Amino acid sequence: MYELNDTIVAISSAAADKLVIIRITGAETIKKINLFFKPEVEQNQQAIFDGKLSIDNEFTIEATVYVFAGGRSYTGEDLVEIHTWSNQSVTEAIINSFLQNGVRPAGPGEFTARAYMNGKLDLAQAEAVNKVITSGNRLQLGAAQKLLSGRLTETVNQTRSELMSCLSRLEAGMDFGEGDIEFIKTQEAVRLLESVKNQLEKLIKGSISYETLTDLATVGIAGAVNAGKSSLLNAMLGRQRSIVSPEQKTTRDILTGILELERNLCVVFDCAGLITKAHNQIDELAQAAAIEALNGAEVVIICVDITKEDLTEDIKIRGLIKPKVIIAAATKSDLLSQIEISQRLANLTKKFESEFIAVSSKSRDGIKRLKEIVDKRLLEQAGTGNVQSAGVLLTARHRQSVSEAVDNIEQAISELGRDNNEIAAMMIRGAYQTLSRMEAEHIDEKILDNIFSKFCIGK
User: Fold this and answer.
1) How far apart are CA 116 and CA 121, in angstroms?
2) Predicted model pTM
3) Which of 282, 353, 375, 415 has the greatest number of C-beta atoms within 10 Å?
């Protein structure tokens, strides 16, 4: 585990060029910064200084230094952040100047580890810091922020308190059971334990597993040949990802792109146009690949050319795929008037038994609304409804501890029903200790090493 008595330094910004942030924390932070920065920084001071930072005693650069006194800093120790416009060579020279004067390079997650060790963050919040940093989409970020706000710790502490209350009264009844005092009736103990179990099960059921959010959802674009799928892919991505041609069967392979929506990040893909009858082996292979990819997608956008008179082929093609969620898009709407669009949409809705949205890849009409609908459907697939109402984030470690606690409580309830109060008390204590391990009372040092080793350096 980390040595907490020394002073550490690391680059905290995303890159070593342009605006660079260097963090220093530890007992000798103020002493070390004063070796290189003027004006001199005073101890126990919360302030911002503009001044000059000397490098290798040869030249100086302008820098802003943010000073955070121990009790009010992120790590719980004196902490300084150096903000300066620099390049990689100069940044390395600044770091080396501190290293040559007794400051140690920080390890992965060491700043957050110190925040945890010094009581500035609990363990769940410390883990959330890394989740916030590594979030790949807004859903991940929203879930991680809830963990960072202490929601999990608050819930666990409440259930632990209720478990301890039940355990204390149950053990008191066993110790003084020969008297006239009844500390807790069996029915009341069962009711309390059922309440706690329900809270923990609700926590698991309503939670978001960060691991399940790591893989990006997929959105497929399907339809007949020349239905405007490739153009729609380009319009949604805002760039030319797929080849667009008036010639049929231009798209053979599955083409993908990363689409950033308001609350999700997803992979959107366009594949070969579906056909009702393959003419050769290449068509068969392309068709099989397209159907497999579409059936595995979280959402499929089915494209139908709104200008087409005969929809027989499109209706048959719709029956070839069985997606989880389908969104119907009437493409090429820029070729018709508003009155014609309304009439065609009504006809499409009747024939396909699905509500269509009119879109145009050329004029971009309907593209924004289509992306909003996709965003909403992905959230529904994730079971969250929206980021604001999503449950608290649970990591694999959290989920395992909560599940073990639920198992122990269920066994305790069962033993109470058999009048085995001593065994029930043992199981309640086991549930309490399992939940305690989530936070730090007897946390294994290997677990801490594993948690913080996943951080990037400087965080």
Assistant:
1) 5
2) 0.48
3) 375
